Amino acid sequence: MPVLVDTGILYALADRDDDWHGRAVEYLDSTDDMLLVPVTVIPEVTYLLKARLGDRAERQFIGALAAGELGVEPLTRSDLKRCDDVLGRYPALGFVDASLVAMAERLRARTLATTDRRHFSQVRPAHVDHFTLVP
């Protein structure tokens, strides 16, 4: 089963001072699951990396994606429709997080790699009772 990887985990991997850094590294080193980065997450991650850690961090992330170290999951038209539904039910979620929900439902993914426990623990996806949040 694929695991969708959210912004916070990707940022934490690059920032050794981030509270989630150790947990993120440990989880990604220990899993054999297929890791997918939603295309909607990429601009958010690259912005944070460049703004907080500089050009090199941003380029390392893009290089890792280009090298296939993580898969990239596209956004479909049906995902966009589902995002609208999700945002109607969970207005505090935001588009990027709603897109993770929509993609997870389409892919039947149960697990999200995220630091955002507050929002994702409240979401009730259509395909399972709740998401498994890691690390």
CATH architecture classification: 3-Layer(aba) Sandwich
Instruction: Report how far apart the termini are.
Output: 16 Å
What would CATH call the class?
Alpha Beta
How big a fraction of the residues is strand?
5-15%
State the secondary-structure class. Answer: alpha/beta
Return the average pLDDT rounded to an integer. Answer: 97
Strand order of the largest sheet: 3-2-1-4-5
CATH topology: Rossmann fold
What keyword list fits this structure?
5-stranded parallel β-sheet; alpha/beta; 54% helix; 135 residues; 5 strands; Rossmann fold; single chain
Structural summary, described in words:
There is one protein chain. The chain is α/β, with parallel strands linked by helices and 135 residues long. The protein contains 7 helices and 5 strands, in the order E-H-H-E-H-H-E-H-H-E-H-E. Strands 3-2-1-4-5 form a 5-stranded parallel beta sheet. The longest helix is centred in the middle third of the chain and has 13 residues, at 41-53. It is globular, with a radius of gyration of 14 Å.
